[in-house]
Amino acid sequence: MSKFLLATLLLHIPLYIYPILRLCYWAESPLWLTLLIFIPLVSSQYMSRFYLRKKNSVWTKLLRRFADFYLGVSPVLLISTLLAEIFVGFHMVTFGTAVTSVIAITVILGIVATMAALSPMVKTITLSSGKLTAPVRFVQITDVHIGSRKPAFLDRVVHIVNELKPDFLCITGDLIDGQGVSEDDLKSFKSVVGPIYFTIGNHEKYEGVEAIARRLENLGVKVLRNAETHFTKELQVIGIDDMDDANQVAVQLEKQTLDKDAFVLLLYHRPRGLKAAADAGVDLMLSGHTHNGQIMPFNLVVNRVFDMIKGLYEHAETKLYVSQGTGTWGPIMRLGTRSEITLFEISPAQESLFPSR
Amino acid sequence: MSWLDEGADVRSTSLTEEFTIDLYRETYQDRFIPLFVVESSGRLRVVTDKADIPADCKIISLIKSDNI
């Protein structure tokens, strides 16, 4: 049995089995009702992710939404059930009040988390570079997860991007994560003025990266697969294929010809390889992938896997920006994190009139 | 109107075991004109035959996206 599967099964105990059975016990529900609640909830992720993965009927979509909503609120349900244990243990509340309170807290936080995931915020990062003679303004979107999210979400994101009037748009992977996302579903990219640079994420590999790349190229998106191009002669853009290999950035940058006179922008899905990027002479690296954990307390787990999970980092002269992600994977929820569209404004560095002595 | 006038760009791509020349052709279909290859030995060669592109090389092409 793989470690992942074992960990998933073990996680079912605190997130599914314990709170459901505890709440049913407190509610004094009869066995048949307990089983009616317990069996669909416990099997919901297995059903939606594996058994019904390639089915796209209204019912399977509804089941997936239901399974994801439960998964999203399950940490809240666990924590509130544990807190209720204390109150019940000290006879401060009745069983009935405990059940009502736990369900109310879970549903309210579930709604708050859903609202947060539906409306991405625009975050602006201002930088300067001595390699530019004119200001550059571009936008990063990442981890949009069309498939998990409807194409209408992409339309909304592209509308916000267009309102920011960027010179170009960067997409750092995990744009698509589902079967059957057609060119028509992505047609809003045609409304973007200026080039769109795209690099693949892990989810594109699961869904068939060649077909996705072809669809995107048909829409005018420049797919950079271990490739480089120039936006202007002052700005070079490099895209590296996502790999589960800590040395991928180092290996691929060694094969690229970096323009030392230009501002070098590197797009790589995972926030790994900052030192290699700095050694190669990259000025700014853009990543995503982490979602900043998306839902508390999953960010504590992501924190253990990645050193850099959100925001701006620096190594020598090179900066790395890790976006929290524009969309969501699994539950359409964000708790303690925000969906973001990132605007970069890079101005030419001005020489100081009063140089330091 | 030339491809450059239509906004095609020059892209330099390192082919790998995952992204082979066949997949490169499949991705860009008739929208790329290979200009040069840099062989693994470091030798730069002008592409005169679209079919003659080695597996392990860097390919420099003019690529046209559809909506430009």
Structural account:
- The complex is a heterodimer of chains A (357) and B (68).
- Chain A is of the alpha/beta class and 357 residues long.
- Chain A folds into two domains: 3-117, no CATH class; 119-348, Purple Acid Phosphatase, chain A, domain 2 (4-Layer Sandwich).
- Helix content of chain A is 43%, strand content 19%.
- In chain A, helix 1 (3-26) runs antiparallel to helix 2 (31-51) and helix 1 (3-26) packs across helix 3 (58-89).
- The longest helix of chain A has 32 residues, at 58-89.
- In chain A, 44% of the residues are buried.
- The model of chain A has no long low-confidence stretch (mean pLDDT 91).
- Chain B has one helix at 21-28, and strands at residues 9-14, 32-39, 44-46, 57-63.
- The mean pLDDT of chain B is 86.
- Chain B is globular and about 35 Å long.
- Chain B is built from one helix and four strands.
- Chain B has one domain.
- With 68 residues, chain B is mainly beta.
- The interface between A and B is medium-sized, with 25 and 22 residues.
- Strand 6 of chain A pairs antiparallel with strand 1 of chain B, so a sheet runs across the interface.
Pair of chains with the largest interface and how many residues each contributes:
A-B, 25 and 22 residues
* Poorly predicted ranges of chain B: none
- The level of helicity of chain B is 10-25%
How large is the radius of gyration of chain B?
12 Å
Distance between the termini of chain A: 64 Å
Sheet-strand content of chain A, in percent, reads 15-25%
Which residue ranges of chain A are poorly predicted, with pLDDT under 50 across at least 5 consecutive positions? none
The termini of chain B sit apart by: 12 Å
**What structural class do you assign from the helix and strand content of chain A?**
alpha/beta
| Silhouette of chain B | globular
Please trace the helix and strand order of chain B, writing H or E for each element: EHEEE
Radius of gyration of chain A: 23 Å
Q: Give the neighbour order of strands across the main sheet of chain A.
A: 1-12-2-3-4-5
Kindly give the count of domains of chain A.
2
- Tell me the series of helices and strands of chain A, N- to C-terminal: HHHHEEHEEHHEEEHEHEHEEE
Main sheet properties of chain B = 4 strands, antiparallel
Second CATH tier, the architecture of the largest domain in chain A: 4-Layer Sandwich
Number of strands of chain A: 12
Mean of residue pLDDT values of chain B: 86
Report the helical percentage of chain A.
40-55%
